[in-house]
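Internal tracking record. Fields below are filled automatically when a chain is submitted to the structure queue. Please do not edit lines marked as system-generated. If the sequence contains nonstandard residues, flag them in the REMARKS field before resubmitting.
Queue: standard
Priority: normal
Entity type: single polypeptide chain
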Amino acid sequence: MHLYQDYLAEIEERKTAGLHPKPIDGGELAAEIISQIKDPSNEHRKDSLNFLIYNTLPGTTSAAGEKARFLEEIILGKATVEEISTPFAFELLSHMKGGASITTLLNLALGDDADIAKQAAEVLKTQVFLYDADTSRLKEAFKAGNPIAREVLESYAAAEFFTKLPPVPGEVQVVTYIAAEGDISTDLLSPGNQAHSRSDRELHGKCMIDADAQGRIQALQKLHPDKSVMLIAEKGTMGVGSSRMSGVNNVALWTGKQASPFVPFVNIFPVVAGTNGISPIFLTTVSVTGGIGLDLKNWVKKTDEEGKVVKDANGDPVLEQAYSVETGTVLTINTKEKKLYGNGKELADVSSAFTPQKLEFIRAGGSYAIVFGKKLQTFAAETLGIKAPVVFAPSKEISHHGQGLTAVEKIFNRNAVGTTPGLILHAGSDVRVKVNIVGSQDTTGLMTSQELEAMAATVISPTVDAAYQSGCHTASVWDKKAQANIPKLMSFMQRFGLITARDPKDGYHAMTDVIHKVLNDLTVDDWDITIGGDSHTRMSKGIAFGADSGTVALALATGEATMPIPESVKVTFKGTLKPYMDFRDVVHSTQAQMLKKFGENVFQGRVIEVHIGTLPADQAFTFTDWTAEMKAKASICISQGETLIESLEIAKSRIQIMINKGMDNEVQVLQGLIDKADKRIAEIQCGEKPPLAPDATAKYRAELVVDLDVIDEPMIADPDVNNEDVSKRYTHDVIRGLSYYGGTKAVDLGFVGSCMVHKGDLKIVSKMLRNLEHTQGKVEFNAPLVVAAPTYNIIDELKAEGDWDILQKYSGFEFDDKAPKTAARTEYQNMMYLERPGCNLCMGNQEKAEKGDTVMATSTRLFQGRVVEDSERKKGESLLSSTPVVVLSAILGRTPSLEEYKDAVAGIDLTTFAPPVKEMVANF
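SYSTEM-GENERATED OUTPUT FOLLOWS
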């Protein structure tokens, strides 16, 4: 019984950190616990009972398998446990939500004992996580004339698993807690540097915000035991940045309700809010947990007597408070009227939080139950040969006769499942769509695997073209936490059917390439839909949606995603880019010009349809990637035919490299993608199916023409850490020209890396070094420069083309895959570091700059504490800019002047971007 003794030792260790026993997921430990329960004289019997009943994870964990089989023995009288009666055994099975518990329930329901079969059927009727093997058993039993099978199927067809649930409360009482002013990044709720603990929900919960905030939340709960604590982003948006199921899990853990008394640390029904609502990706996650996300609009733009917006000295709109939500305010959410009340007074219309579909998610305790329930109802009705009654809210289908389609509307119509035949759908329609590519990243992957176990999934949906499990977020530091977690993750995902960055059997070299770059290559059709476990899942072919770990699990298990067709904003370009400008400057200027034109962020929650046209996918990704920082829901790159073919050929070559490494699986997923790319190229070449383009008569929420002529200096996204208005810090919206800094702002570290760079950026680094070497005789760094190529392919190509030599010449450190770093660097020297491909500083969970540093980076992350934490002497700053600005800043140890910058890039082709000559549209 050594596993049990090890478990007891772990319990004692966790006590020192104020933690409860870790939930049990291992079958061997569960088997030991069961053997102790069966022994009346065993000294550990009482504790073992509690562990089995209250601390064993459900779903497809091996522990759940042992538990389900033991409960079956009890029900059949093969084992006797005084504390677990037959009714209680059935109750425990009802909370196990799939996997082995469904097998047990089917065994009993289809067995010979009529009384037991009846009881099992009643429990089975409440379950929704059934898969093909389960439904096939029911179908065969029904065909054989089994009356219990018919009874269960009739219940499923009537959707009694949903209709018999308690209704959504008409009123929800909440007490407010302002978590922060301004946008709240998911980093505040689930810090990236604590990613290793996400699968240990109780432990990870301790990192939400800080101990003081947790104490204040608990104090509010004691004062208001009958109310939910509502976390608020005052003067900002809740849940921006990374896609964090762990962030919502933490909020639910502290403020929600326990989903089941027999499943520890899994809570549902969190209530969150923001002055500017909830970011789209976070709102999806809230739905997964059956929660409520409110758009408060409690601060509004002040207007003068003429109705014009009043602006401050910086030209920003002045906000005034429409109503107060200060911490401790008691409010009432009326779910029927869809209004927010305070002191009996109506404060806001919150109808967007209570669409018919969202009310169903709340009632069911989460969106998964609805997704699986609908499929189960359809199956049962078809098996019985009847028409399924209308139980669930009908999908909203919006169609405007004669109106053309935007690019996203075209993709959704092509991939729609279960919509009215022949009906063309426009934005706002609720659609189930087929998902082609799915990506799981390594710091959320452990949670995705848990979600898959919880929904009893064991194999990837056959309708998914390819799925990939990355290793990029743990690439920089191969520490003990990574060594313990990542091999286990890779093994699970490879068994499930994903292509994995690491081979559990070490059959091929680990590929720590940035996940977004890999997914960009795996997307080989411009009409495809990708779902990925990261907010930067925004491909430059097809459309991609960043998602929480649960939505990723759902896409893997079902091959589908459900969402409204988003509105689009069309972005085109005019003018000529100056030869010393980089494409990153175009990206930043797009955001600045949008804010200047509209006075507000029209991109937020919408699809940015960007007509880049002339840039291949690798380079166009710099734009589509940044749309996460623009708070867009997604983006679509409209490309010219020859450019798209070039992108697909590049993708094919990189997929072939993966095949040559030995990364393909038994069903040859990667070879299938190459075949699909060949088919798409042929369609474009023969004119059978041109590249995706919107219709000329498509309708957009807004249109922006970016003027390249006005971009006359490098553009920098500044966190503005000292802005007097806290809500305006760390927003990505402060875009400043290089001259703002006067060539005097000290830079403590430079970082070229993450998903925003491509091969061309690394060539720019080498060319700049050669330029400076030629003009100055040598290159000296006055600040450290960290360089992390996004993929190994890029390094191989740089070596072949002679660029890697100059990088090696000036580097003081070069990564060694045979001896990866086992601890994060805490101090830097003034030299160049050539780091392993992967996320590096951008992720914030491994490497960081020294506290209080001013970092100039090509990254996307300027959130407080992400790339750099504050020190006692000063706030840490992460300024975001182009590769040449970063390199020169590290060499000088300060921001360069415009003249110094121009000299350093002289003769270097920074980008080939030019607006397409012809408008890229199709006829409706």
